[in-house]
Amino acid sequence: MVIPNAISILVTYHSGQSYLKACLESLIQTVREKDEILVVVNNESQDVNQVNLFTERITYLYFQENLGYARAVNEGVNASIYDYMVIADHDLVFQPNWLEGLWAFYDSDPKIAAVSCKVLNTASNAILDYGIAYSDFNLGHPFMDLSIDHPLVQSNCISQMVCAGGLLMKKQDFLDLGGMDESFGSLYTDLDICLRLKERGYLVGAASKAITYHFGGDFSLIKGAYKNASLKTDIKGAFMRKHANILEQDMIDYYKQSAKYFEKTFGGFSKYFFCNMMNVANPRWYESVVQAEGVERYDRIERASGQRDADSIGLFEIIGYDLMVLGAPIAYFVDRYVSVKNNAFWWSQRRDYQRDIVIDRNANVLPLLQILKGKDN
User: Fold this and answer.
1) Cβ neighbours of residue 119 under 8 Å, at least 6 residues apart?
2) CATH superfamily of 8-242
């Protein structure tokens, strides 16, 4: 494996200087002296535009306006000097040998045109992004919240889409696509790039040995104005229309992997009472997917928890006393499997949860016991 002589690393920055400092320090410590580190500073505030950290090593491109993520990336690419580039957010903190891990996967197959890092949650040290999949109504993050050492996230992953969590591409490939779609602003722009590459016959993926932390990635913490629900709905509609002919319902493939791992590691499935608390348009679809993998149902209820992708929900408040004392095993369907953990009253009363399982919308199928032990494998 020979990494190109030098690579351009493009960091987009709007605000949050502490995050930027951590990001740049991690880059300086983990890349080569000859690699270009270019920061695209874009903010209408003159005070923010005064940022000048590590100027002996970092090149800055200043815009006294809010460009939006897509345009900021495009400006950075146009100003970059090398043939290969890595696109990075300012709140990523890269771990040793990440660049080598990215390049090894990228260089392993001529059909691979873009590779992202394995992105970790700064709060839990667990998977945040390791490819993005589609399930008809929404996009999911396969294996999100699994531990960094879980067997399902130890191999390089070819995926339909990946986030720009340190996204390695050839500059000319990016330019040939016309760059990021600036009409999307700061949403779905990286996924749009992936699907346009797919349309041209290329592959994208996430590298298992390229590790970075993302401070702004946890759904429970995202408060940014650019994530406004109405705005996101509008842009998602445009994104889905643009890629209607190329998007594949590939989330099923990840459920198959999870179910296979479950049976191999924990034994076969039982028959369960389905408690579906997902906040999705198609909750029964997730039930049908795991049923096809051997998870049997004898009855069900459907009560959305009320908050999409919450990291904690109240089981007693949502599904009540009668199910807490139910003698049969329960299959809990939730947005994130970690959300069931903080329910001490539920587990300490008459609930016999030894055979309960949890299924979430990110293709995780896990025994409840393992989750309560703080383990997933």
Assistant:
1) 92, 127, 128, 129, 130, 163, 165, 166, 212, 213, 214, 217
2) Spore Coat Polysaccharide Biosynthesis Protein SpsA; Chain A (3.90.550.10)
